[in-house]
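By convention, the token line describes the chain's fold. To illustrate:
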Amino acid sequence: LRIVSEYKKKSEENGFYDRNAAAKLHERIEKRQQVLAEDVERRKEARQSQSVAEEKSEYFVSSFNAERAGIQELLSDCSGADRPTVTQKLEEATAKMTQLQKFLNDSMIFLSQYQIRVAQGALQKLQASLNETREEALPKKKFTFRSRTKAAEKVSDSPPPPSSETVSSGVTKVEEAAISEQTGFSNISNESLTKTSEEIQSRDVLLTHLTNCKVRLYGSPSTLHLKHITACEVLCGPVATSVFVDHCSNSVLGFACQQLRTHNTTDTQVYLHVTSRAIIEDCRGVSFAPFCWSYPTLDQDFTASGLDQDRNNWSQVDDFNWLAAGTPSPNWTVIPEADRKTTWDP
């Protein structure tokens, strides 16, 4: 306004005051002031957003490290402890590992790829320590066949009952439960394979070394592992936690899950519903589209899995081999709508 007033005063003194020119100058000045104010507001919002993200990231790092230390302490307590105590500690450590993985999955939306990679590496090391501790503290007994002498039979006329921690085979109840919770198919070619909800519900499913097979998994498993899958079509109901794919080629996959980890996979289509993020590593020619398989009890299985049907990050894929900011990874693409499958054979 001061500039306009000065312009008006000088123009009147010189005898050529133009009201239209003054109005246009006033309008330009107002627009510039508005642009400056909007720019200031955008920078303010950006600073606030960055501050919130940094606070969330700091909270994640501190909480993650604290939980990891707690699990490491549980594993350390297994050293020299009796069998019931070890079993209890391992069960507690396993439960905390699952919670820690879920915490990471839920936090991926605001973590950097570097932070995700570091956390995943820490979890892998922790899982390896857990497995090693279990092997050392609770080794599986091997079957042995021996002929019993009459003297031995007399001594063992009244054998003691098995302890509450073991079953007749010598395998602990914890180990037996882990074995019974896994199901799947392996080393099969040129067949149609099906598992019902009763067979996979809340269990770990392993598919390995399958070639030219059509696989249908109805229900909600706990986890899904696919290894060495070639020229197959695999469809699975909602997976409560993670799907792990390794060495898969020329295949079509479809599933819903909390997290997807894909390694060493080529020329494969993935019809995906994922509530956190999809991660690929050492992959090429992988393409994605929204999960679209349906069967009568799908909604019930979504409820059982705990997954959010309204939250699907199928196109948010992190490539750990491609960290160039602002440049799309050449290792994965989105399947064009015209090329997507919409119907599936039973």
Observations:
- The radius of gyration is 31 Å.
- Residues 60 and 257 are 22 Å apart (CA to CA).
